[in-house]
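Summary for the steering committee. The consortium agreed at its last meeting that each partner would contribute one worked example illustrating the joint modelling workflow. Our contribution is presented below. We chose a case with several input lines so that the handling of multiple components could be demonstrated. No manual editing was applied between input and output; the record is shown as generated.
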Amino acid sequence: GENVEQHPSTLSVQEGDSAVIKCTYSDSASNYFPWYKQELGKGPQLIIDIRSNVGEKKDQRIAVTLNKTAKHFSLHITETQPEDSAVYFCAASKQGNEKLTFGTGTRLTIIP
Amino acid sequence: DAGVIQSPRHEVTEMGQEVTLRCKPISGHNSLFWYRQTMMRGLELLIYFNNNVPIDDSGMPEDRFSAKMPNASFSTLKIQPSEPRDSAVYFCASSLISGWGGPLHFGNGTRLTVT
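What follows is the complete predicted structure of the assembly.
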């Protein structure tokens, strides 16, 4: 089955700086790569996703890049703000939003 | 919309007892998922339903776990008998299934502690 590795497990950045989280996947048939944000005491929430026919997608301060050849994808957050502090999960699937395999999560802390 | 509603928020029980977790999905969604979250294993898909029918239960750890979806607005996850290693946060999520992707809408979870 699919295996998704995520790095780093923790990340601290100064407010206003950029943060990058990286994931690799094992199944070359995977074609859908969402990113979820989980705040304390809540369930994960989709923040951005990308499909395998696209190399990059951007939504305001958040962007995701995908390298199908290397089987890795990354989340980029620019101009970080305190409210960006949370745990971020990448995921991969070859069946759309069915059977997502999640990475192990990155705890992002924004230092004011 | 109230979102996905899970109950209870917290459950503490003794080993050997039966535990039932409940979920009300978002109205109109055709799929429902049960996930388990632990520090060691992260987020694991246990089972999912499409139009109330179980599609894939390969993530259910063992026969002590069972899930039902008697109608489009209600699902249960039952553990009988419970064991300390079942301690985790259990999430229910619902969505409109799509081969193109799209969000899973998660509830706020049930934190289960088995002593």
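The two ends of chain A are 41 Å apart (CA to CA). Chain A touches chain B at residues 32, 34, 41-46, 49, 51, 89, 93, 95-105 (CB under 8 Å).
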